[in-house]
Fold:
Amino acid sequence: MGQGMKGQMVFEFVIAAVIFFGIVFYTVNYLSSSFSSFSNDLYMNDLESKVIQVSDLLVHNQGLWENGKPKIIGLSKEWPVLDAAKIQDFEDFCNDPANYTYLLENLGLDEIKFGVVQTHRIKIKIDDDSGTLVDCGPSPPEKQMVSIERFALSEYNDILRINVWIW
Structure:
């Protein structure tokens, strides 16, 4: 009788251990997937705030331009009108690939988080009914990017579409 009890206790222990490790594995897996989802949502919210900030700078800020290079980004003449000369300067500025890094720094898209440099990418496109006025930056990816479309007027009362993508 004593021998049978011993075998039953080992069997019960094995069953309890399997159930315990199953619960631990499920909990760790659930927390890991939840953290990943939360982290991704936080990243996308951060990008959304940046794309709104950049689009606001473009359409509401007059900017400060020196020798065709923006010290402070801004295309506004007086809201809701954008300055045609600044739009042309911005297109000329963007045509030089060497200015892309400067643009990222000027817009605060190169930042240090937790001791790691995090560099985002940006594309800015300004269109009117006649075509594209500004096409700045590389094409955005299909995923993990946010975009915004803003509207303003040109000095000639044309409607301008300002699209900004950040990833």
